[in-house]
Each structure stands twice: as structure tokens, then as C-alpha cells.
């Protein structure tokens, strides 16, 4: 049985939680936090890493928590790769596949 969670969040890691869902939620939350500058944050990868490691189920989905600086590094690299050419795949799906490859246990 899963503990109670905030309304609007996925109930259990074993439910339909997925890394793309968490990345999407992180993106929406980041945009709300940085709304006054329309989401602009030069240090976005650090914010995402903190949120993903401390406020999401990412560590459980990966089988352990990556080192924060490694996750920041990977997020920056993934952003460079993803934006280097047009892609049909959602960024959340594309990042998730690669994060699983790099950090999955």
C-alpha cells in the first residue's frame, strides 16, 4: 500500500510513474517557480537535479540516487544534444531513455 501523497501527484512508484512524467512535472514546477522571468534560469540543470533527487521518485526509479553533480552534468549534456537538431520525440521521453542508460541500476 502506498502512503498518501499530494493531490495531483502519481500515487506510487509502482503505479504509472515514469521518468518522463517526473521530468514533465519538474519542467512545469520550474516554470511556476521562475514565472516572473518566464522560466528563464541559466542554472536550470542544478534546480532540476535538486528537485529530481530530493522531491521526486527518480532515485527509486533508477535504483539509487545519482551523485547530484553527475546528474547536473548529464542534464546539461542532454540539453545540448537534444537541441542540436530537430526532433519529433518529446524532450521528456528522449532525456528519460538516456538517463536510464546512464544511471539505471
Range of helix content? 55-70%
Main structural class: mainly alpha
Q: How many strand segments?
A: 0
What order do the SSEs take from the amino end to the carboxyl end, as H and E? HHHHH
Major sheet: none
User: Mean pLDDT, nearest integer?
Assistant: 86
Net shape: globular
User: What is the beta-strand fraction?
Assistant: under 5%
Number of helices: 5
Low-pLDDT sequence parts = 1-16
Tally of distinct domains: 1
What is the radius of gyration computed over CA atoms, rounded to a whole number of angstroms? 14 Å
Distance between the termini: 24 Å
Features:
mainly alpha, single chain, 105 residues, 57% helix, disordered N terminus, 5 helices
Question: Summary?
Answer:
With 105 residues, the chain is mainly alpha-helical.
Structure write-up:
It is a single chain. The chain has five helices and no strands. It has 105 residues and is mainly α. Helix 1 crosses helix 5, helix 2 packs across helix 4 and helix 4 crosses helix 5. The N terminus is likely disordered.
